[in-house]
Input
Amino acid sequence: MPEFTTILENLEVRMHLGIHPHEIAPQRVRVSVWMTVVYPKPLGADAITEVLDYDFVRSGLQQMAAGPGFALQETLCEAVAALCLTDLRVREVRVRSMKLDVYPDATVGCEIVRGR
Output
């Protein structure tokens, strides 16, 4: 069975994420997603209908960013991983979130790997 890694990298959103007083306002968060996708047979056509369309991950992340937010990056990463795993072809997903503006000299983040 063919296996591919489908990548959505460095999607930047503004969202409520954090527990500290200075994180009350929405902040810039960069999210990257790597999905190991297994297909039942070799691809037969050069058509989007043959493969996983990563648009559902992008739009799902944008909806999360527009929502009430998350206290923890770990919770955000779990929510993104769960979204990706709704497509049964996704065997494993790696999600990384990075808060870009917490410190002037560093970014802070979380990365998880989930599979079925």
